[in-house]
Model the fold of this input.
Amino acid sequence: MSETKSTNIILFSGDYDKAMAAYIIANGAAAYDHKVTIFHTFWGLNALRKDEPIKANKTLLEKMFGKMMPRGAEKMGLSNMHFAGMGPKLIKKVMKKHNAMPLGDLINMAEEQEINLVACTMTMDLLGLQKAELRESSQYAGVAAYLGEAEDGNVNLFI
Amino acid sequence: MSETKSTNIILFSGDYDKAMAAYIIANGAAAYDHKVTIFHTFWGLNALRKDEPIKANKTLLEKMFGKMMPRGAEKMGLSNMHFAGMGPKLIKKVMKKHNAMPLGDLINMAEEQEINLVACTMTMDLLGLQKAELRESSQYAGVAAYLGEAEDGNVNLFI
Amino acid sequence: MSETKSTNIILFSGDYDKAMAAYIIANGAAAYDHKVTIFHTFWGLNALRKDEPIKANKTLLEKMFGKMMPRGAEKMGLSNMHFAGMGPKLIKKVMKKHNAMPLGDLINMAEEQEINLVACTMTMDLLGLQKAELRESSQYAGVAAYLGEAEDGNVNLFI
Done:
């Protein structure tokens, strides 16, 4: 049992708190010497977007999607409706008070731990997102690559 | 390692985009020669409903549930609140433009690939759904059958 | 293959129906002689809260969170927006009619089956929840303990 264990997380959700959970588990698994991959698909792709707007040649629909979707981790909303009124700002205030890491820092740590941050190419195509709009550390793959990793994985989660 | 690998997905969600993700992964895994099962429970059961209304002997409450729940894959809504205004119609337009398969076609493909489409009998009983209302290819089982498959599975996901 | 199989569920969601699904799977797996752990994190922690208010020394923000979050399983809301109007009350009525177990009973059964009900200590710290507010059967651990179990687990789910 000396072989490397692996954790493969599909991040489908665009919610701030769910993305936090994904990155906390991923960073924990990397600290345990797992090979870790986060496969960002659908709304989860927003976690990899750069903060600043990127000039890109887009159709009208793609531009609209680009504007409507949160640009980067810190712009994502919460999953829990009961908190919608206060939202991520309050959560971030509480997190700061408890020295918990905001999502952006968790993603930076994931990069430092060499976690594979994969962007789903099918979703990119669908929503008109381009490589220039995503973090430099992003890798690009489809569902086949995910399955190739996950079928031998130890911890596979859909978040 | 020549034995068949298996993918077991619990589809709990009644969201159009989550069901798409479930069926894209399932079809991918089937193409990889996995034995694939999608266990439809709670709101995920709606993906298996036939489009047309079926005459059935129901209580008032069951009739009400039947009317309120979307009848078939193409009637399901989106998980992402930010898009609620535009909803599945816009997504479908974008998908069509990119030649992506709508959910109904993904389910048909799953049938062709002999993916096991299982309807959770406990949920059927709870919501008053009857076999005649679900796709002919549906199989019927409970949580015990799911666990029997999943405990030896390679990729187990809850969507 | 005579070793004990294990099921490890992360319950992130605070939705009544998702918590039901988690506990139904967990109880099923325990009946199959799996070692079962439910790791309650973020909003999932509400399932472990006691019904009655507990006197605790809290900051204003913590008091606010404590009031806003549902106190115990039976106060949790539904995931499905289409039913928001009627909510858990109708579901419970339907469940009663079909002799299905409400969430509170499913949790009691989990305790009887010696399922490990773990409260995520990071979330407790973040939301200002104290041990006195949670079920006596609760265990306390962080993500590292979860990963230690899950990396050798058979069925790992994020709900």
Q: What stands out?
A: Chain A is about 40% helix and 15% strand. The two ends of chain A are 28 Å apart (CA to CA). Residues 6-141 of chain A form a domain with the Hypothetical Protein Ychn; Chain: A, fold (CATH 3.40.1260.10). Chain A has one domain: 6-141.
